[in-house]
């Protein structure tokens, strides 16, 4: 029965039970961290062979590049071919770079701020600027844009992606709105995948800024949890069809595929955007770490090798997602105080609790030894107006620990909701 339908006396009884459940949870003395989407040690072990894939006797790429030396700003061609195939991008329109796609996002925005874009050589830094942030979203996108002086404007997300009518209305008349963040597949944190219809609407909408950019952060495009899985959109082709080939900058990396701290990142875009990016990139680098790129090339072999490797990740992490979902179901279904996503891929589950209680839940969990991402982190400036969204990252702890954390979390959700309902009574 929904808690809000209970009488005060019934709520008080439930509160006593909830306090007991919470005390039991706290007494277990757990020390767990489900704050960030990191691969578990077992997932990192899947890529152990990377560390021996290149030796000094064997450091020439298939096309004859000595990867120890300078050069090759675009990144190793054969690796770009593999990831170009996976991301549906011609090899000349994808670059392979260092270990962090976030750095590529920072570089793209910084180049636009300092030098303008292929369409408009007015540097973005010369005027005030805004960026659209679908919520709930990824805290590092928000922090990066804020640090670069963008005002963050929120629009809601649903199961099919950002609310495109809201976006279209905003961008149609305001030339200071220069872009939108989109995590197209298995978004961080809700797991939503954008529909083709919404993608097309974003790509062909009229924008007051002639150099508006869709920052298409395809971080989880290969991270399916279940089969059969959805297909990746050919976003560059869609942008071209819409007559706005330069509108999209696509980003990805192997951070959650091989070693999170030592992977390879990718940027894919129109030929014009790629030459613009390379021109500015070349001022600061003679070339990326090609030894690591050759390691990745040898480790995967081909696109099928990447797909097979991702299936091994799914085997390891699917049980953790399932454990969290089934615990939440068992503890909270029908209570009317929480909802949660059950994603088909990616790294996160979004838990939506009774409005006004997310920060209390996070605090209760922390005091009982389970660290969660701070409430509000899923929203620009750390401000969730409903104080209701909590991001759960189930991949890093063991299955046993993540199940214990989910059980404890459910106890915190119930306790915080009962406290609130009784305070309002
Ligand atoms: N984008 C999204 C949506 C992410 O969730 C993450 C990792 N949490 C990143 C980018 C970071 O990617 P990288 O390691 O390539 O910088």
Structure write-up:
- It is a single chain.
- This protein has 425 residues and is an alpha/beta fold.
- The protein has 2 domains: 3-44 and 307-424, Aspartate Aminotransferase, domain 1; 61-301, 3-Layer(aba) Sandwich (Aspartate Aminotransferase, domain 2).
- 41% of the residues lie in helices and 14% in strands.
- The chain is built from 13 helices and 13 strands.
- The chain has helices at 8-27, 41-45, 77-87, 101-115, 139-147, 164-173, 196-204, 235-241, 271-281, 290-300, 303-332, 358-367, 399-424, and strands spanning 32-34, 94-97, 129-135, 150-158, 161-162, 177-182, 213-217, 248-253, 265-268, 338-340, 349-353, 370-372, 389-392.
- The strands form 3 sheets. An 8-stranded mixed sheet has the order 2-9-8-7-6-3-4-5, with helices on both faces.
- The radius of gyration is 23 Å and the shape is globular.
- It starts with 7 loop residues before the first helix and ends with a helix.
- The mean pLDDT is 97.
- Bound molecules: 4'-deoxy-4'-aminopyridoxal-5'-phosphate.
- It comes from Brevibacterium daeguense.
- It holds the Pfam family Asp_aminotransf.
- This is Aminotransferase class I/II-fold pyridoxal phosphate-dependent enzyme.
- Keywords: Aminotransferase, Transferase.
- One of its GO terms (molecular function) is transaminase activity.
């Amino acid at each position: 029965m929904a808690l809000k339908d209970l009488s005060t006396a019934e709520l008080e009884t439930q509160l006593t039970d909830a306090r007991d459940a919470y005390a039991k949870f706290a007494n277990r003395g757990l020390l767990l961290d489900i704050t960030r989407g990191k691969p578990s040690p077992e997932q990192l072990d899947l890529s152990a062979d990377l560390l021996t894939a290149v030796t000094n006797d064997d450091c020439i790429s298939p096309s004859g590049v000595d990867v120890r030396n300078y050069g090759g700003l675009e990144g190793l061609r054969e690796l770009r071919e593999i990831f170009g195939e996976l991301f549906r991008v011609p090899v000349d329109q994808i670059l392979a770079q260092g270990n962090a796609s976030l750095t590529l996002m920072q570089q793209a925005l910084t180049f636009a701020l300092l030098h303008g874009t292929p369409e408009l050589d007015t540097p973005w830094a010369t005027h005030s600027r805004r960026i659209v942030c679908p919520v709930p979203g990824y805290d590092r996108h928000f922090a990066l844009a804020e640090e670069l002086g963008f005002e963050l404007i929120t629009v809601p997300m649903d199961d099919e992606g950002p609310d495109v009518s809201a976006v279209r209305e905003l961008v149609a008349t305001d030339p200071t709105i220069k872009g939108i963040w989109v995590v197209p597949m298995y978004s961080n944190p809700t797991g939503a995948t954008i529909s083709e219809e919404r993608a097309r609407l974003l790509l062909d909408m009229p924008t007051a800024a002639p150099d508006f950019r869709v920052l298409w952060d395809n971080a989880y495009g290969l991270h399916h949890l279940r089969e059969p899985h959805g297909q990746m959109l050919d976003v560059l082709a869609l942008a071209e069809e819409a007559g706005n080939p330069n509108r999209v900058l696509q980003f990805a990396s192997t951070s959650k595929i091989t070693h999170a701290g030592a992977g390879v990142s990718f940027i894919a875009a129109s030929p014009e955007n790629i030459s613009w990016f390379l021109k500015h990139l070349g001022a600061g680098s003679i070339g990326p770490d090609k030894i690591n790129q050759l390691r990745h090339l040898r480790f995967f072999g081909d696109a099928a090798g990447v797909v097979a490797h991702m299936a091994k990740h799914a085997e390891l992490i699917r049980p953790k997602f399932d454990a969290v979902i089934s615990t939440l179901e068992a503890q909270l279904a029908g209570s009317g105080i929480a909802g949660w996503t059950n994603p088909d891929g990616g790294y996160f589950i979004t838990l939506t609790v009774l409005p006004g209680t997310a920060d209390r839940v996070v605090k209760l969990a922390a005091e009982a030894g389970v660290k969660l991402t701070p409430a509000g982190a899923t929203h620009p400036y750390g401000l969730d107006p409903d104080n209701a969204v909590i991001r759960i990252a189930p991949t890093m702890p063991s299955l046993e620990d993540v199940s214990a954390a989910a059980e404890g979390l459910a106890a915190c959700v119930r306790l915080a909701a009962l406290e609130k309902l009784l305070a309002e009574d």
